[in-house]
Amino acid sequence: MTVAQCAAGFCFIFTGVQIVSTTIARFRCPARTTPLPAPADAPPISLVRTVCGLDNYAEETLASGFHLDYPNYELLFCAARADDPVLPLVKRLMAANPMIPSRILIGDDWINANPKLNNVAKGWDAAAHDWVVMADSNVLMPPDYLQRLMAAWSLDTGLVCSTPIGSHPDGFWAEVECSFLNALQARWQYAAEAIGLGFAQGKTMLWRKSMLEAAGGIRALGAEIAEDAAATKLVRRHGLRVKLVDSPFQQPLGRRLLPEIWSRQTRWARLRRVTFPLFFMPEILSGSLWSILAGAYAASVGGFDPLLAALLVMALWFAAEAQLALAAGWRLAWVSPLAWLVRDLMLPALFVSAWAADDFVWRGNAMDVKESKEA
Hints:
- By secondary structure, the chain is α/β, with parallel strands linked by helices.
- The chain contains 14 helices and eleven strands.
- It folds into two domains: about 5-25 and about 275-360, no CATH class; about 35-265, Spore Coat Polysaccharide Biosynthesis Protein SpsA, Chain A.
- Helices cover about 50% and strands about 15% of the residues.
- The chain has a seven-stranded mixed sheet, with helices on both faces. Strands 6-9 form a two-stranded parallel sheet. A two-stranded antiparallel sheet has the order 10-11.
């Protein structure tokens, strides 16, 4: 085969993968119009939320936990420090919703270098019920949040998660972050789950407490620097599956700047490189850039207009993402195609950056992915 034929084949295969993967996610993430009712025999649930600082839309996301249409649940807020600036807001919400059992837990239980895991451990220990949801403070919970998590559980399930869906962007770089979270990362998680390779996502995790306790408890998630990577491997070792909810939950973004996005995406890339190296390697081929270049090269050798070919490949890639966003009710605006293109131009640089260093900073905490190997 000639180089041009190889380029054309590459473009055809990867464009096909793009269309197939977005189609899978489209059918797994239908837009919700009617909330799920809570079943009559709904089991009690402990909802453990880690809090650290004041995020954008903090009041909306934290208040959503008090307005769940579920008959029996408790709220446990975990903060590492008593002077955390978010705690006055949490106390005000607790006072405004006395009918929901809720508590604030302060302090750190050292497990590993992951400050989030150290923070949430006390909430896990204090949870009164066998079903436990661990959720970040910036998850916007719909009224049927708990029943949608429970509906995804089956006999072969060890963990139910929800990948974050970016919403409420303010500014172009927030649109770019939506493009990373939604049509790229969420889509690939649903495609992986469809072939039996479900990966945990730490934004929302539903556990059966008795199951995790039998496997070593919350401290078993300290085997990796990322608790969701440890959760994935633990569940698989026990012959169970990580499952995703139908229609994942929103993370309101607000204002975002390029350095924030770069730092966050680099951190996640470095964690994936260390925790799942075989799955990380193909990421250099993700995004539309290589297919656009391959299609343009093949067209130029074949005597066709390379610019027209590049635009056609780009249109196919982004039309697939647009139909997914439209069907799922995710963020879709006139600026979305430009945000998708900027994201795809960033992907090769992020891949290189993931190999360039091992350290990163998360919420003021210096961390190093090498600690995962040591663990």
